[in-house]
Amino acid sequence: VGIGTTVPEARTQITGGGLCVGSDANCNTDNNTEGTVYSSNTAMTVYDVAENYPTRDTEVGPADIVALDTEQGVFVKKATSAGGRVLGVISGNPAVLLGGFNGAQFAEERQVAVGLSGRIPVKVNLEGGNILIGDHLALSSVPGVAKKAADGEQSIGYALENWTETQEAAQRAGNLGTGTIQFFITHGTLAGLSVASLADELAGQPAPDSLASRFLSNMLAQVKKWLADAGNGIGDVFARAFHAKDQICIGETCVNEDQLKALLAAQNGAQTASAGSTTLTASSTPIIQINGNNPAMLAVGVVYADLGASITGPTTADTNLGIRYFVDGIAVSEVQIDTATSSTHTVDYVATNDAGTATSTRTVVIGAVAELPSADVGETEANPSGTSAQGDSNIGTGLPAAEVASSSTSQSSLVIVPELVVVMTATSTTVVSAATTTTP
Taking the complete model, does pTM exceed 0.90, yes or no? Predict the structure, then answer.
């Protein structure tokens, strides 16, 4: 049916169910000069805009994802994970179809409509997990089929319908469609990739397979590579503490932990040996002075009361440092030693300042009276409850249940012990007998 006249030459033709605006009476594309349609609005019953592209892939069809054919310019083929730029999804019934490639070189080529905008069906699977409304969709490992996109993958658009395990199971049983859902076309976006979302994920612990985790791993790998390069230009490094796992190196000289300990021990020994002529500064470790005898000698059964230690330098501020205690290498809050049997113990007094850590050690020897060296029996290290502090001429210091009596001339005295009677003079100590009662 022709509408209008032969003048002007442009006619409106409705031929074979299609509207043609052009100069040819039969709307023959070889001779027709296309006209223009003007409208304030257009109403259509389908929902997308598409454009024809040539293809030589005989298997590609509606709802398939297609990619550029890298061997044929402007051609498309079913997209695969092996490569190729994803272009879009084939539309089976576009509302607006752009002519695409109408040149003579494409006259014999099959053409498919690739969706440009709007919503169309797409084939999906559950390779990326359940698909929920609003999820990004991306190409799966199955050619032409979409899945839920992972962070950083190229997105073809947003799901407008859910696709879950329940729906897929029903589809496999023949109860639901063909495994397609409606989606909204987008182009060039990357799923989950935004500065805001990346910052939010990095604020916590990113999932192992997330974009944030991959970004962090790659960034740290590059930082490690850069730090390992001597040409990275790093000058001074400032830190509260620096921890090296294996070695510390300056130039070509490197030391490990054991070598460094040996060097520091040798240096500390040299400082101790020359303490009288060494000027101590704020860069020196604390000076710890042990109070009382060292070693300390006690008889078996005597309660040991530690006299402690004092920090005497190197600065006034250091004298206010706290001292930590270790008995036989074990940290304690209060020094206590079991004196029930003959034994030898160590008490370490440890203090730390900005220059390092210093340790002074007292040796405590517990033994029978006859076993204790006579030169050191005057140690006043112990002071059990109910006894007085003994002078340098007393033995064992604070023997249990003892009473100390001194003569008027202070030249000799008797110590009364449940098991022993000991006579002490200014020059010797003698065990008299195993009596229970003595007189001065």
Answer: no
